[in-house]
Design a protein that fits this description.
single chain, alpha/beta, 5'-nucleotidase,  domain 2, six-stranded mixed sheet, 29% helix
Length: 489
């Protein structure tokens, strides 16, 4: 028979053992996204404090005392010259310097060709994730990873990424220029199984959403109801302002842009292999508060110097300003369509006004000028099309949104009524050669592409073709009668 003292000692021992079994751990994940090549802290322009950049983030990361990991959700180069020039290498070099546990390719990064993406992946120590990304051949790109795991203190965290091309049309394969996005639920299930089999105690999905669409909370709840248990979803979706529960998972936003990072403190029960709590905070990267890491500053300075030298290089000269629009038309876009037609040696050219982001200024034209005016990575497509099909295709475009060269469009009630060439009306059965940016031939539903007899991508960017023109042409003239004329109502 136990004495009261023995009973109390036994109870204390049992309680101590239960407490040991129920011991919780806290680990921290820092998450960034959509820096778009802007790797340094910004100041001025109405900013009262120097803010942002990987040099500040590195200081914040190093100051964290708990076990930690950093992840990035992509879109690495589209906003600034340094990013355009290096095709994302400048951003990945900064990630390596922290270092990050994983980085997920974003939708904008898929404008990189497979060859460019392979160079980027092979030049970086940071594992690039693209779990539902395939090549057009239906093969997984060997240079990208589907999953990554990080031992964060006593907790093993598994990461995978999913890219959503259209939240309004979920779980459908999506064909892009050089890739295919497979159904997200299928690939998520494969990734979760792989990570659990590898011993991951916490599974984190890095969810990138097409910047052109928004995804509401119902989208996340529906997605997570169709995949095996995920503990945490970190997303770059701007409409997600703070964490929320979706079934058994937490959904939380990453920091957005170069001036902020999200800090996610996960409470984990290692014995049970599950996450039991989440504290989230959005942190502004103030340089005067956290300081700047010298090694990261040196990385950034090297890329910025080489970019400055490159973008200052002169490619030509322009005698007069070419605005985006004036009372008589769209001079800058008209210059561009003339340029495409001349370079392609085609009968005609069509350019969307959205290709141009800034007017063309008189004086020396530099590589930087070209990037400012033509920031998109559109390439020139050669099309062969019959005259009647060309007229029908032009009727499917908004005349106010295009410029043409080698053609004259006559409008009636705001729509294309007649199309003529410099030699006269289009001949129905004649085959015409037309040059267009691939942004005007970007899918099977496009009127120009669906009507073409043949088409081929030149793999030369509109920007490069414009550089070729500027080296040979200094002036531009309006054709008599204009390019787009209003007819009788």
């Amino acid at each position: 028979m136990r004495t009261p003292l023995a009973s109390r000692l036994l109870l204390a021992a049992l309680l101590a053992g239960a407490g040991a079994c129920a011991k919780k751990e806290q680990v921290v994940i820092f998450a960034t996204s959509r820096t778009q090549g802007r790797a340094w802290a910004a100041e001025g322009g109405g900013l009262s404090r120097k803010t942002g950049g990987f040099a500040v983030f590195k200081k914040l990361y190093d100051a964290e005392a708990r076990p930690k990991a950093a992840v990035d959700l992509g879109n690495w180069f589209s906003a600034v010259p340094e990013g355009w020039l290096t095709r994302g290498r400048s951003t990945l070099a900064c990630l390596d310097g922290v270092p990050y546990a994983a980085a997920a390719a974003g939708m904008e990064d898929l404008s990189l060709s497979p060859q460019e993406m392979q160079k980027l992946a092979e030049s970086s120590r940071t594992r690039i994730l693209a779990s539902n990304l395939y090549l057009k051949s239906n093969k997984k790109p060997e240079f990208l990873a589907s999953v990554a795991a990080a031992k964060t203190g006593p907790v093993k965290i598994g990461f995978f990424s999913v890219l959503i091309a259209s939240p309004s049309k979920p779980n459908r394969p999506k064909y892009l220029a050089a890739y295919k996005l497979e159904k997200e639920t299928y690939e998520a299930a494969r990734a979760v199984k792989s990570l659990r089999d590898d011993g991951a105690q916490v599974v984190v999905m890095l969810l990138g959403v097409n910047p052109k669409e928004a995804a509401g909370q119902d989208f996340f709840r529906d997605l997570l109801s169709k995949v095996p248990r995920v503990d945490l979803v970190i997303t770059d979706e701007p409409s997600v302002k703070k964490p929320f529960r979706a079934g058994r998972a937490w959904v939380a936003p990453a920091g957005s842009g170069p001036d902020e990072a999200a800090r996610l403190a996960l409470t984990v029960d290692p014995a049970a292999g599950r996450m039991t709590g989440l504290d989230w905070d959005r942190i502004k990267l103030y340089a005067d508060k956290y300081g700047e890491d010298k090694a990261e500053l040196d990385i950034i300075a090297g890329f910025r110097k080489s970019a400055a030298d490159h973008f200052a290089r002169r490619v030509g000269f322009l005698q007069d300003d070419l605005p985006l629009a004036d009372k008589a038309g769209t001079p800058a876009a008209d210059f561009a369509s003339d340029c495409l037609r001349r370079w392609a040696k085609s009968n005609a050219a069509i350019v969307g006004l959205s290709e141009l982001a800034a007017p063309l200024s008189s004086g020396p034209v530099t590589v930087g000028s070209l990037y400012a005016s033509f920031p998109a990575d559109s390439s020139v497509v050669f099309i062969k099309i019959r005259g009647d099909d060309l007229e029908r295709a032009l009727g499917g475009l908004q005349p106010s949104e295009i410029s043409v060269s080698g053609l004259k469009l006559t409008l009636k009630d705001g729509a294309v009524d007649r199309v003529a060439t410099e030699a006269g009306p289009l001949t129905a059965a004649k085959v015409y050669r037309v040059a267009v940016p691939d942004s005007l031939a970007g899918g099977p539903e496009n009127a120009i592409l669906s009507s073409a007899m043949e088409f081929a991508n030149s793999r030369r960017s509109v920007r490069d073709v414009m550089g070729w023109c500027f080296s040979r042409q200094k002036a531009w003239a309006r054709p008599e009668g204009g390019r787009i004329a209003k007819g009788d109502k």
